[in-house]
Each structure stands twice: as C-alpha cells, then as structure tokens.
Amino acid sequence: MRHREVGELMTREVVTVPRHATFKDIVRTLGEHRVSAVAVTDAARHPLGVISEGDLLPKPADQGDWFRSLPRPEPWESDKAAGTKAEELMSAPAVCTRPEWTVAEAARLMESQHVKRLLVVDDSDVLVGIVTRGDLLRIFLREDDAIRHEITGDILDRTLHTDPSAVSVEVVDGHVTLRGVVRFRSLIAVMDRLCRTVDGVVGVTEQLAWDTDDTGTGH
User: Fold this and answer.
1) pLDDT tens, 69-92?
2) 142-212: CATH topology
3) Does the pLDDT at position 154 exceed 50?
4) pLDDT of residue 180
5) Are 94 and 49 in contact, with CB atoms under 8 Å apart?
6) Where would a tag sit more exposed on the chain, N or C end, judged by fewer CB atoms within 10 A?
7) Is the pTM of this model over 0.85?
C-alpha cells in the first residue's frame, strides 16, 4: 500500500518573518497574507519557531482595565504579553516534519505536541513547506472508487492473496463494507486492520463468513 506523504499535501509558499520582526510587523504580515501563523526563520531559512494568532493574543488582552478582573495569566502568557519581537513571541522550538513522512506519522506528531501545524524541512533543516491539520484531513476526500480499488488490489489480492471475487468491497463516503467468505477466520481481523490503514477510510464494517476456524475460539 502507498500512503500519502506530507510533501503531497503541504503548502510550499510559507510566510516567514525574521527573528527581529516587531509585533506590528507580524500582525501586518498575517493580515496581508491572510494566514493564521507565520514561521520565524534565520537568514538560511532554518526554522526557529512559529507565531500564531494565539501567540499574539496576550498582548491585546493585557490592555484595558477589564483585564484586571480576569484570572492571573500563566507565566508564558505574561512573557508573550511583554514581548515586542518575533524571537520573544514565538513558540519554540518549531515542531518539524519531513516531506517523506506519511500523513499518519505527521498526525501523530501533531497530536503528541498539541500543535495545529508542522513546519516541513529538508535534510539540511531548511524550511520547504508547512502542513496544517486541515491539509492532513484532505486524505478523507479521496474518491470511494480509489479506496475500493486499493483495498481490492493491494490488500485482498497482493497482500493477503485472497481471491477478490470471494469478498466484495463496498465503499460509501469512505466507509468500507466487506462481504463474502474467507478461507480462515483469522484473516478477518487482519483484513479489518489493514483496511483501516488505507488513506481516506473512515470506518470498516465486516460481514464475513469463513471456511475454517483457525482461531481456536470454538464460536
């Protein structure tokens, strides 16, 4: 099976600011490019951090008498509210991925680091793109026929050596339904697990019978 890679989904035109960019420069850049975050880079385009709209919010929140009635901010919020340059406002270090990483690998990194976007760097750690949660979700826009073809050819035929005519594959809005008869009962769990790894699959329902029960469960 071929999994989609970050390089296929990322945005190559990354909006960047230098580490000495001022608060107003950053806000202006966000507005001009209509983006919600910018990468902070050095002169060689090595990523140093990321500044999102959320990183900038402590600044306006620190203005006005009404702020005094709010709960005390976290230490990092106070630091960012006092910051005036990119290097003081950015979230660092930047969380990065590589173009050859799969969508699943990138999604796991996002989840573990609690970030909404990843900077994409090459082998020299030079910034080459950016990928967001929305970009990764695009795999679920795959056509049902493409998903069915991959399951039938890559999983049933070439991986499990199962006669595709013995198992029908129906895909509707990314949900896979398997019907038919397999040689061994143990194949059902394997088939279900492999189908769920196919890019674009939302869920799997199996309605399969078997010729031989090799699981030893007796029922």
Assistant:
1) 555 555 545 555 567 899 999 999
2) Histidine-containing Protein; Chain: A; (3.30.1340)
3) yes
4) 97
5) yes
6) C
7) no
CATH 3.10.580.10 in the chain is located at 6-139
CB-based contacts of 79-83 (< 8 A; 24+ apart in sequence): 80/55, 80/56, 83/23, 83/59
